[in-house]
Design brief:
heterodimer, A: 294 residues, alpha/beta, Rossmann fold, 2 domains, eight-stranded mixed beta sheet, 10 helices, B: 278 residues, two-stranded antiparallel ribbon, 11 strands, globular
């Protein structure tokens, strides 16, 4: 990893989100290039620094390229108000992403590149129509059509199901949220067996296509776990053609290791290096080139 | 600096950087206008930093609602603070905590209690030793300072079981000697921290000054915590101990957001009682 520029500054902020207040950290570059990066994470419990300061270090590395970079906490996490919500694909955190975007815009920080992890990437795709000047998207382990538990339910053997059913009590069945969760798992399993149904598989491709048409470069990063299988399936079902029709700034970074939760330092470093290289090649050089030409 | 004001209660929350000897420290403080006493919370680091974050914040808000002030901070090299994690050691953590204690004093807290969570309990004990008779709260204190390494290695083995199944719990010291650091389930652990923690114990750090102490156990090391309580009592401290059920390892993460209302309520009741007596 690079040494962090000691002249980088950070501003700590509270910003509005409906009735609540969210918290964030704005990293201010020494040599700004007029671009912003929103580092939006998944729905985990880590505060805005993430595991092993991964998000902190990533935001600072990006700021060294000249970006104002912003990391923040979702409601009920870190220093943000509100209650923590477990992630449900049908209820993305798009309002939170838009709140960040609007606050940054109010500070004159526009044309953001969003670097988003997992549920944060999914939420960003849902927020696209409210992010009119999005300049780029880096998505780590973005869900394609189902969440981690649905994947587990579809692929797990009878032992996993026996264990789940063993915990199925009358009290749990009386809980609406739990009932919905069990129903979703059962539906996922039934879909895998019958080949019928399943969740909206086209949403992801449609959103990517809209970004391609808008000329927004994208980088999709997957490991050998999580949503990689769904991503490859989507590639075979038409996503590859969409990505190939995009400019050279759009592509994939596929790592032969587990990336969900960033459980090793090597995966944190490789994703940081891949992201910084992509930003430099796909966004920064064009911005600086255009500035030089003008 | 960022400020949030509650118009109804007058309570204010502040996010700011504190100038520390090892880099700027990310700090959160909160108080009401009438607040004259408060608490400094010394978190843990690495996986324990994240797994306790939510409950430490909720505990802080509970204290704020009861009229007490709070200062929390991230150590240099951890969280949103600056500083190089390669240089993090027990001494650097104590230096950072001393800066945060000064912040508490500057907020007008005439009496300051000290709290530490897991590895942070060692820091809290060292800081309390410099603060005569300050009440001390220890959440799941690290009776054996390096036990967190095996906790993390075990969690790593569980996490990667399906893929490798070969993680060796006993090899970490050899790996550390060879590389100067090890990967603890995605967290950097460097030699200075390990070396600085060797042979530390809470009773020794606290010294001879007596004080009220609350030990809250979160499940796994009940016998050792009971022994710690006995040891502290034998030294003249007024020790209370409560045990709570925590569902899983600090390093596996998903239990971090679980409701620990009983832990928070018991700790807040104890603390308010001790601070009111002073």
């Amino acid at each position: 990893m690079n040494q962090i520029d000691p002249t980088l500054r950070e501003e700590l902020v509270f910003f509005p989100f409906g009735e609540n207040t969210l918290a964030g950290v704005l990293t201010i570059p020494s040599n700004p290039i007029g671009r912003t990066a929103i580092v939006a994470w998944g729905a985990g419990v880590f505060p805005s620094s993430a595991r092993n300061q991964f998000r902190t270090r990533l935001a600072r590395e990006i700021a060294q390229l000249g970006y104002h970079s912003f990391r923040f906490d979702y409601p009920g996490v870190g220093e943000a108000d509100g209650h923590y919500r477990t992630p449900v694909l049908e209820q993305p955190f798009s309002k939170e992403i838009v709140a960040v975007y609007e606050w940054l815009s109010s500070q004159g920080l526009v044309r953001p590149v969003i670097i988003a992890n997992c549920f944060g990437a999914w939420s960003t795709l849902h927020a696209l129509n409210q992010l009119p000047d999005l300049a780029g998207l880096v998505a780590y382990n973005c869900p394609i059509r189902r969440d981690h538990k649905e994947i587990r339910a579809e692929e797990a053997g009878w032992r996993w199901w026996t264990d789940r059913l063993r915990h199925l009590t009358w009290r749990r069945l009386m809980n609406r949220n739990r009932r919905q969760r069990y129903a979703k798992l059962a539906k996922a399993r039934a879909s895998a067996i019958t080949g019928v149904g399943g969740t909206n598989a086209n949403f992801f491709a449609r959103k990517v296509e809209s970004l391609v048409k808008a000329g927004v470069p994208m980088l999709f990063c997957y490991g050998d776990d999580g949503f990689r299988g769904d991503y490859e399936e989507a590639l075979d079902k038409g996503l590859r053609a969409i990505l190939e029709s995009a400019g050279p700034g759009t592509g994939s970074l596929l790592l032969p290791k587990r990336i969900e939760g960033f459980p090793t330092i090597s995966v944190q470093n490789e994703l940081t290096e891949g992201t910084v290289a992509w930003l430099r090649n796909s966004i920064t050089d064009q911005v600086l080139g255009a500035a030089g030409q003008s | 600096m960022a400020l949030k004001l509650d118009d109804k209660t007058g309570a204010e929350e502040t996010l700011e950087h504190l100038e520390g000897p090892n880099g700027l420290l990310y700090a959160w403080s909160a108080r009401r206008p009438e607040t004259t006493s408060g608490i400094l919370i010394c978190s843990s680091v690495l996986g324990e930093f994240a797994s306790n974050y939510h409950r430490e914040r909720n505990f802080s808000l509970e204290l704020l609602s009861r009229g007490l002030g709070v200062v929390r901070f991230h150590y240099a090299g951890e969280g949103n603070s600056f500083g190089d994690r390669r240089h993090v050691s027990f001494e650097s953590m104590c230096d950072d905590a001393a800066v945060a204690l000064q912040k508490a004093v500057s907020l007008g807290f005439e009496t300051v209690a000290i709290m530490g969570t897991q590895l942070g309990a060692l820091v809290a004990a060292a800081i309390a030793a410099r603060t005569p008779s300050a009440p001390l709260v220890l959440w799941e204190p690290a009776v054996e300072p390096l036990s967190f390494v095996n906790d993390a290695r075990l969690a790593s083995k569980i996490t990667f079981l399906e893929r490798s199944g070969t993680a060796d719990l006993s090899q970490w010291r050899a790996d550390l000697d060879r590389d100067g650091r090890i990967d603890l389930l995605g967290h950097d652990l460097w030699t200075p921290l390990v070396q600085s923690l060797e042979n530390l114990d809470i009773s020794g750090l606290l010294g001879d000054e007596v004080r009220p102490v609350l030990i809250a156990g979160l499940g796994s090391r009940r016998t050792k915590l009971d022994s710690l309580a006995e040891d502290l009592r034998a030294r003249g401290n007024d020790v209370s101990i409560s045990h709570f059920q925590k569902p899983e390892s600090s390093w596996l993460g998903s239990g971090s957001m679980l409701n620990v209302a009983d832990l928070i309520a018991v700790t807040a009741d104890w603390l308010v009682g001790r601070l009111e007596k002073r």
